[in-house]
Amino acid sequence: MNASTSPFAIPNIRRFLAFRLLFGVRFYYPVFAILFLDFGLTVGQFAVLNAVWAATIVGCEVPSGALADIVGRRALVVTAGALMVVEIALLCFVPLGHPDWVFTAFLLNRILSGLAEALASGADEALAYDSLKAHHRAMDWPQVLATLMRWNALAFVAALTLGAFVYDAEALQRGFGLLGWEVTLDPQTTLRFPLYLTLITALGAWWAALGMTESGERPVQSQGLRVTLHHAGRATLDAGRWILATPFAGIVIASGMLFDHLARLFVTLNSAYFRLIDLPEASFGLIGAGIALLGVGIARWAPALTRFSPRLNFALLAALSLVGLAGAALVLPFGLGLIPVALIHIVLLLTGYLASHYLNAITDSAQRATVLSFKGLAFNLGYGALGLLYAAWLVVLRDGSPRDEEGVFQASLPWLLGYGMMIFLLFAGFVALCRPANTLRQPDSD
User: Fold this and answer.
1) What's the per-residue H, E or C state across 353-398?
2) Residue 32 is inside which H or E element, if any?
3) pLDDT digits over 295-307, tens only?
């Protein structure tokens, strides 16, 4: 495909890909939990900080999408990039040995990180999709998503391996030794190295955002903050009413939430599951990198799914989810035990891909970011609700039981399978009874 016929010849598309990759590549992810603890925080503070992060995203998700549709998407994407720079810089330079300062820095980090996620969510995607529409290339959106999926997989592998390596002072010293450099490193120094790398990508994400342009005339409100917020609130209500009045949009968001919240919960439990199937802890990083590479393969054939009916894609994702959860409940040993993990990761990738394709195809440009923010809100609320439900069920399984923590976790896996079967059947039955067949047809591209 030559440059003149490629969607990647459009500057905004290239910058969108760069922003998404640099915004999402965080080298501290493989050491996320222990990073907090090594800074001197407690496990309880770690839990509180992540609750603050989640609450910030949920509270700001939809209002930020409406604001993007009112004042322009570029402004919010640029702000998100700037906030990422600030939130990472806080952790790079906060002095150690002062517990109150460290906790305050992490608290501000979690608030700014959640706000940045909410501001970028929907706005960057809407900006890129409208750029394709402006060039009469909306049909190329699946190709852009597939490319993003492929590059994200490679970037995630790099972040996993390099972030964990530079965090380990001994491993880093051995690496320098192989190069003939005698360097003495202290763990208190190297614990910031993944943060320094992330600060570099944050600056890159901000730079990519600054280069973006609005794809059309986007009226910027000049009547003041109060009037702008009023318009944003009205836009939020209008988008909500449109979703309720557009069965296909509601079905896409609801079904996407069902697949996403169940798959995401299992993915967060990966390390516990790996230990359950007797995999050595030293292999967890390599396994995570290998699973991340699935995105490269999935990106090759994911666009073909857009030619199938939404009903068929729902059935496919439901089947993959249930087979994966069933395999996990059987606690298959070693290599066989990794098959369920791979299947559930595939579900997570395809859910995001298909939800973006369907919603962008049917949503008007004027409210695109707001509708996509409703999707993000639904996904996060579903994940949070299931997390609370699962935690309560673990308490029930643990209460009065002689099982250890590993046994309790194993006993919870069949429950996840049963929960998945129930919600998929109930949702499919509800749609079949309450929605005409023509509301489930695949929308035409713009």
Assistant:
1) HHHHHHHHHHCCHHHHHHHHHHHHHHHHHHHHHHHHHHHHHHHHHH
2) helix 32-38
3) 888 888 888 998 8
Instruction: Report the amino acid identity of residue 132.
Output: L
Q: 292 near 157, Cβ under 8 Å?
A: yes
Contacts of 259 (CB under 8 A, 6+ apart): 317, 318, 321, 347, 348, 351
Q: Tell me the three state secondary structure of residue 290.
A: helix
Average pLDDT over every residue of 199-211: 96
Superfamily grouping for domain 245-446 = MFS general substrate transporter like domains (1.20.1250.20)
């949503």: which residue's tokens? 363
Cβ-Cβ contacts under 8 Å for 250 (sequence gap 6 or more): 243, 244
Backbone φ and ψ for 71, nearest 5 degrees, come out as: -100, -5
Task: Report how far residue 271's alpha carbon sits from residue 279's, in angstroms, rounded to the nearest whole number.
Answer: 9
What pLDDT digit, counting tens, does each position of 351-364 carry? Answer: 999 999 999 889 88
How far apart, in whole angstroms, are the C-alpha atoms of residue 256 and residue 121?
16
* Secondary structure class of 185 (helix, strand, coil): coil
Tokens of 318: 């439901």
Residue 56 to residue 117: CA distance in whole angstroms: 9
Domain 1-220 identical in fold to domain 245-446: yes
Mean pLDDT score of the chain: 84
Least confident stretch, 39-48, 236-245, 436-445: 436-445
- Centroid of chain to Cα 393: 25
324-330, long-range: CB < 8 A, 24+ apart: 324/266, 325/262, 325/266, 325/413, 325/416, 325/417, 325/420, 326/417, 328/266, 328/273, 328/413, 328/416, 328/417, 329/413, 329/414, 329/416, 329/417
- The pTM score is 0.75
Topology of the domain comprising 1-220: Growth Hormone; Chain: A; (1.20.1250)
363, 151 contact by CB (below 8 A): no
Burial pattern 179-196, b for ≥16 Cβ within 10 A else e, equals eeeeeebeeeebbbbbbe
CA distances from residue 203 to 26, 131, 431 in whole angstroms, order as listed: 12, 24, 45
> Which of these, 230, 228, 184, lies nearest to 76 by C-alpha position?
228
Contact 399, 269 (CB under 8 A): no
Amino acid occupying residue 73: R
Ordered DSSP codes for 60-105: HHHHHHHHHHHH-HHHHHHHHHHHHHHHHHHHHHPPTT-HHHHHHH
Rounded CA gap, 340 and 329, in Å? 9
Residue ranges per domain, the chain?
1-220, 245-446
Phi, psi of 356 (to 5 degrees): -65, -45
Largest CA distance in the chain: 71
